[in-house]
Amino acid sequence: MSTPRVFIIRHGETEWSLNGRHTGSSDIPLTANGEQRVKATGQAMIGSDRLIVPNQLAHIYVSPRTRAQRTFELLNIEPKDEDIGSLPWTRHGERIPKPAFSTNAGIEVTEDIREWDYGEYEGITTSGIRKMRAEQGIQGHWDIWKDGCVSGESPSDVTYRLDRLIKDIKDRFQRAAMANDDVPGDVLVVAHGHILRALAMRWLGKSLSDGPTFLMEAGGVGTLRYVMTHISCSSSSRNFQPFWWAKVFDHLRDGDLVRVASHLHIVSGAFRGP
């Protein structure tokens, strides 16, 4: 049996990611440096002999935000079958002149992987948010993983949509791949910093209030995987227990950051079936 993976890629650098401003619904373009780094990531990480093999991709999820969609464009992955069409959005920039990596995977834009809705905190740095809350008389040290965002999303709101996405990934694509080695099972998700860290936590069965113990910089790449190849077919009896992938990454302990390259971070964990 194969063990399918979920690759997560954070969008490239923007002016707001550089200065730490929370960027949810705002459509901030990539910087020139951000575009160059994403192109380099695609060349280094995608290919028939690389981490992400296009022919092994079963599906691709992309955030509805322009910065995530442009990041995907710069990875240079295209549908193999021209009848499928091109991308499910109007291109945000020029095509890369080099031949594209072709894939049979469907490309889906979904709100489930958009960035955290920061509400009143949109465009403000963490220090600015804490200062604003203090001036409003709100007690305590603000932590998005516990407190969420005023007029935006709470941790439970984010958990709900990410759990729905994880169920979709497993039910639609990865159960079949675990039962049949001839069926592609890898999934690619291109999105944002907070939401991808939250996705990794929910993949491991952790509460968002625990807070992540890893970082994911702009343009970063991560891998989510299974230790065991069994997924229960009964949703009512599913009882996954998280533990870290120590067999391969024996230097990874309790969510420690692993820097594989200048812009690559591996978050590798798993669910054990009942």
UniProtKB/TrEMBL annotation:
GO molecular function: sedoheptulose-bisphosphatase activity
GO biological process per UniProt: ribose phosphate biosynthetic process
InterPro entries: His_Pase_superF_clade-1, His_PPase_superfam, PGM_Phosphatase
Binding site for substrate: T23, G24, R67
Protein name: Phosphoglycerate mutase
Organism this protein belongs to: Zalerion maritima
Source organism phylogeny: Eukaryota, Fungi, Dikarya, Ascomycota, Pezizomycotina
